[in-house]
Amino acid sequence: MRKKYIQLTPEEWVRQHIVSFLIEHKQLGKGLISIEKGTSFNGLKKRYDLKVYDNSLNLILLVECKAPSIKLTEETLIQSLTYAQSEKPRYIMLSNGLQHIYYDVVNKQFLEDLAFSGI
After folding, report:
1. Domain with 42 in it: what CATH number?
2. Side-chain-side CA neighbours of residue 112 (13 Å)
3. Structural domains in the chain (count)
4. Helices and strands in the chain: count of H runs, count of E runs
């Protein structure tokens, strides 16, 4: 999707599998997925691993990928929620490739799976 070679780090391995999951299992078009795009929070530049948009180009999902050796914690979610304040996504997904956390930002609740398909 990036049209360039990327070093296959553990985090990149997770990122590529999440992209595949979104395309294959959630039937999202490649054009709705943005990889490693920046954002600004309190004057600091931050970067999300993936941003997913609906067909109206509204941000619906922010994805933060970690290497499989990194444990997902409440602190990781809080950090993503803090950065998401300026982006206003509907959902946040955290993944280390082994564990996945889905959070509905609007209803402030954890989910078993992402609540959308084929936006």
Report:
1. 3.90.1570.30
2. 0
3. 1
4. 2, 6
Residue 28: inside a domain, yes or no?
yes
Question: What are 23-58's pLDDT values in tens digits?
Answer: 999 999 999 999 976 666 666 666 778 999 999 999
Q: Is 3 within the bounds of a domain?
A: no
> Taking Cα atoms as reference points, which of 36, 1, 10, 14 lies closest to residue 101?
14
Q: Are 31 and 41 in contact (CB under 8 A)?
A: no
Domain that holds residue 73: 10-111
Query: pLDDT (tens digit, 9 = 90+) per residue, 78-106?
Result: 888 887 887 889 999 999 999 999 999 99
Residue at 32 is within a domain: yes
Asked, for residue 118, whether it belongs to a domain, the answer is no
* Length, in residues, of the chain: 119
Question: Residue 75 in contact with residue 81, Cβ under 8 Å?
Answer: no
